[in-house]
Amino acid sequence: MSLWPAALALGAAGGVVFLPQLLEAARRPADGRARISAPGQFVELSDGTVHYRWHGPGRGPVVVCVHGLSTPSFVWDAVARRLASMGFRVLTYDLWGRGYSDNPERPHDRALFLRQLDELLATQGIERDFTLFGYSMGGSIATAYAAENAPRMRRLVLVASASLGHVETRFAHFCRTRPVIGDWAMTVAGGFLLRRLLRRQIRTHPDLVPIIRRQMAETRRRGFARAVLSSMRHMLAEDLADEHARVAAAGLPVLALWGDRDPVIPLSSVGRLARIDRDARQVTVAGGDHLLPLARAEAVVTAFLEEAGVG
To answer: Is residue 124 a part of any domain in this protein?
Structure first.
């Protein structure tokens, strides 16, 4: 009896098992040559090296921006440019596993992200009187941070925040809830599916083609799938109603912006936040989808300036 069929089957099975490792090895790392052309600067924190960038004048009111699950800090560029032109000092940075920052091999949970933000602020000499912006999952991080540091802050601005819930695709739910096989599926297919989604966004936002292509390139970064999946299982899985209540009790001013056509963040979040924090100012952007910082930067900045009493 020939052993070739069994050998071929065994080889195919081995190829399937090790496919994630092969794909990861072919993806680009975020360090070394990739960092040479990076805008901004780098700083060493306790969990690794972080990429950050200051926008605007050397002095002025400080705004710190936290991006979301899959798009690095460049998601804030349009907002940062507008604020910088008005005299604000805007700090953007890449979360762990995104952009040019390191990707520590540990759970991407609340503790990891809050430690990153706290240590980064310390290295930049930002102790108090700053405004914290959070977008999507960054809204969850910003809310958790504000719950612990409200006395240090001037206000909290949430843009399409995931802190009170989000809509999960079937693929994302499968990967998040199934250890091992979920990791395999995310590493093999996660980037492809996200790129397919981004191609659809090009059709609805043709003016954003360059930045959407940058988002697509991010999916080919080594460790990107692991960072996203770990965040889905930890930080993004949290409901932060209690933290919102603590922010409200501390009297910290809150501005929340939502898109009425956002397929990711349900509009039920508007009602939930209103019940938790009656003083929070909420703005629903007509026709806005999940890309508010990119596609509706002017609306985001205008709402913030009105809330801050500027202009």
So the answer is: yes
Q: Would you say residue 181 lies in a domain?
A: no
Give Cα separations from 204 to 162, 198, 218, 263 (angstroms). 22, 10, 20, 13
* Token pair 């596993």: residue: 97
Domain extent, residue 281, equals 38-164+238-258+272-308
Is the predicted pLDDT of residue 9 greater than 70, yes or no? no
Residues 22, 171: Cα–Cα separation, whole Å: 22
Token pair for 228:
């996203």
Give SS3 for 28: strand
Residue 219 DSSP code = T
Q: Give the CATH number for residue 94.
A: 3.40.50.1820
Specify the pTM: 0.92
Structure tokens at 201: 């966004």
When divided into structural domains, the chain yields a total of 1
| Sequential DSSP letters for 38-98 | -SSEEEEETTEEEEEEEES-SSS-EEEEE--SSS-GGGGHHHHHHHHHTT-EEEEEPPTTS
Q: Residue 189 contacts by C-beta under 8 Å, 6 or more apart in sequence?
A: 171
The residue written with tokens 């909420």 in the block is 282
Domain contains 102: yes
Where do the H-state alpha helices sit in 181-286?
A: 181-185, 191-204, 209-218, 224-233, 241-250, 268-276
Could you report the per-residue pLDDT of 245-261, keeping only the tens digit for each? Answer: 999 999 999 999 999 99
- Cα→Cα distances 217→3, 101, 133, 286, Å: 43, 15, 25, 30
First-to-final CA distance of the chain:
84
The answer as to whether 171 is a domain residue is no
C-beta separation of 42 from 70 below 8 A: no
